[in-house]
Design brief:
PLipase_D/transphosphatidylase, about 425 residues, phosphatidyltransferase activity, about 20% strand, Endonuclease, Chain A
Length: about 425
Amino acid sequence: MLMSLGGLVFLAALLGMLLAYLTRTTAIRRMRTLGGEQDILDAREGKFNIHLGLLTSVQVVGGNEIEVLFNGDQTFPRIWDAIKDAKHVICVHVYEVNPGQVADTLLRALSERAQAGVQVLVLLDAIGSGQMPRSYRQRLIAAGAEVAIYRPLRLKEAYKFQQRMHMRAIVIDGHIGFTGGFGIADQWLGSGRAQDQWRDTNVRIAGPAAMQLQVAFSNNWAEATGDLLIGDTISPFNRMPSVDEPQAAGIMACSPSLGSTNAERFFFLAITSARERIYIASAYFVPTHGMRWLLMNAVDRGVDVRVLTPGSNTNQPMVWHAGRAIYRQLMDAGVRIYAYQPGMMHAKTFVADACWATVGTFNIDNRSMTLNDEVALIIRDETIAQCLEQHFLADLEDSKELLPRDLLPESRLDWIKIRGSRLLTPFL
């Protein structure tokens, strides 16, 4: 009997996942100088930024205005105001778009600007926005917007199925940008302190880092449509500010590649260069073997390593079960892991020594590091880093520190879930 089209697509996607996993090159394991092994970087010193640029291509520059936005009640009003004030171009690429109040508000805001003559480009991931009816896209197009679908499910490209555009970013006129963990869905409404309100952290950027976010959008738009975007919204500045100017920051945008990705190299540099503390918020915390080694090694150096993640109240139970299989190793080494209690914790932040920080879409898992298109704002600013630290510690007050007994299976079926989920960690 001939296999159905759906079966062929599933098989091609599965083979693509296996191929991506089997053809990965050697992961980074240690940092060396040509003169021998030694710790050469300190996150608080200028040499760290030089290595960051050389090894990840991230250009951290000053002259930005960065505003940290916590949860939907701070984030969405700022987004709607920025869209309303758009004069030339609005670019939207957000992984998750679901029917509801937030999606309707975005539709009205973008339609109004498109009808006023503003160029509106919307890039939707085929899976993340799969619940949106076709009429939503048609209404945007009717208003004058351009809408593209990123990596739709096609048999000839099924091997790309596991590589999703997990980015969440909105850029206005090449100068104002937003990124973080937010989605265009109603669970992001509110203060993040109720079961139906997701806790998240986002940023508003004005300045050259927003231009870099525009470039990240343009690269994904080219992948989806074949059109390479150029013009003043890509390079509206006559010069690039110095890193010594206020609120230095840069965009790290990553796509799947052979060998280590920019994300892997950044987190390796940041973790090995921390001297005092590392605070990580990760909605889906399933660190690879190499990442676990990095975090445990940091504890051995005397670094205070703490992780905030959802517990059993996660929207992805398989991730929680996979985490239960590996958290004990981290706990025994001294890494402290906390489960956020009020509701779903969806933030993706990283702070090292209260001087470097990231806010974006990267989770600490293999999917974010090697399979998805992701984006984050890397920030070199003590005021912003300390703000993120303070909110991280405040979140710990609403969290439960996990203990080894919290990871134990409660039944034979629970044990099967834990063991089975661990086998899938390369794709989580």
